[in-house]
Design a protein that fits this description.
By secondary structure, this protein is of the alpha+beta class. The protein has nine helices and five strands; from the N terminus they run H-H-H-H-H-H-H-E-H-E-E-H-E-E. The protein folds into three domains: 94 residues, no CATH class; 74 residues; 128 residues, 2-Layer Sandwich (Heat Shock Protein 90). Strands 1-2-3-5-4 form a five-stranded mixed β-sheet, covered by helices on one side. Helix 1 packs parallel to helix 4 and helix 5 runs antiparallel to helix 6. The longest helix has 87 residues. Its EC number is 2.7.13.3.
């Protein structure tokens, strides 16, 4: 509608739309690029350019165009076309920046949830350790003390003050054992009522589903049995996968990415490979930046198990991370 106003006012005898009309004429393609799907929003600048061309053609016919007039019309068409498509491009850029900010916010929320789950898992593990210690050490020791007191009491005359004192100590000991067992039950019930799903490569499909929901197209391939990995190695491999996918979102955006988890014998391999972002230079390292703690952390996780990590740009401009863990080896 905004674009159609251009030829209408020209056909009505005016020199062209007013200042507000011209501003709206250029803002409309930009707004379409910002709010609409690029596969459809390109119709907005195209329509605006066609309407501008129609308006200048109508104005040229009304004034009797000469060769010089036709040249001016051509330049006007070029001018309006560049402005229309330029406004649309600015809208697309703003749309991409907004989308990336949304993805980073979702990623931050996911990492915060993982941190909370890890802290909760530590708390539950500590509760269970205390419960085991209380049951296996404290309660057992008190039970042995009560039995020994009963044996000593049986050697004393039954109506003496010493025998009565031993009987009272036995009773207090049995009550303490009952209270300790009740407390152990409370600790274990609290732990069992709050289950925590620890990070594991067995949950790689859930992690991939989360980043897919954030807009990253990921193809996951699992080759071999990854259900019985050592717990610590399993967590480290999961964290490397999580960090690598986060780096793709952070540095390359929503580009096609492939994840391969491969286990062969006593070796576990991880490969995360993404396509180059639009306009990327093949010699640019997407993880190069202030600190580089993500890549350093990956190397540290792999080196603990005597493995190796290779990360760097691919010849096509993409980026790849390859990690290999020897299963059963730890430095």
């Amino acid at each position: 509608m905004v674009a159609a106003a251009f030829p209408i006012v020209v056909a009505g005898g005016l020199n062209g739309p007013t200042g507000a009309g011209v501003l709206s004429f250029f803002l409309a393609p930009g707004w379409a690029g910002y709010r609409g799907n690029p596969r459809r929003s390109w119709l907005a600048p195209l329509s605006a350019q066609l309407m501008a061309s129609l308006g200048t053609w109508v104005a040229g016919r009304a004034t009797g165009s000469t060769v010089g007039g036709l040249g001016a019309i051509a330049w006007e068409n070029l001018f309006f076309g560049l402005l229309c498509w330029g406004a649309w491009g600015v809208g697309l850029l703003a749309r991409r920046l907004r989308h990336r900010a949304t993805l980073l916010a979702r990623l931050a929320e996911a990492m915060e949830a993982e941190r909370d789950a890890r802290e909760h898992a530590i708390l539950v593990e500590e509760r269970q350790r205390i419960a085991r210690d209380m049951h296996d050490v404290v309660a057992h020791s008190i039970s042995v003390m009560v039995l020994q007191l009963g044996a000593i009491r049986s050697t004393l005359p039954p109506d003496t003050a010493q025998a009565e004192m031993m009987r009272n100590v036995e009773r207090l000991g049995r009550e303490s054992v009952r209270e300790l067992r009740a407390l152990v039950g409370m600790l274990r019930d609290a732990a069992s009522n709050e289950p925590v799903r620890n990070p594991s490569l067995a949950r790689a499909d859930e992690l991939v589903a989360e980043v897919r929901a954030a807009g990253l197209p990921v193809d996951l391939t699992v080759d071999g049995d990854i259900a019985e990995l050592p717990a610590a190695l399993d967590v480290s491999a999961y964290r490397i996968l999580q960090e690598a996918l986060a780096n793709v979102l952070r540095h390359a955006g929503t580009v096609p990415t492939r994840v391969v988890v491969h286990r062969a014998g006593d070796r576990l391999g991880l490969t995360i490979d993404n396509d180059p972002p639009p306009g990327a230079r093949p010699d640019r390292d997407p993880t190069a930046g202030p600190g580089g703690h993500g890549l350093v952390g990956m190397r540290e996780r792999v080196s603990v198990y005597g493995g190796r990590l290779a990360a760097g740009p691919r010849p096509d401009g993409g980026y790849g991370v390859d990690a290999v863990f020897p299963i059963g080896a730890r430095r």
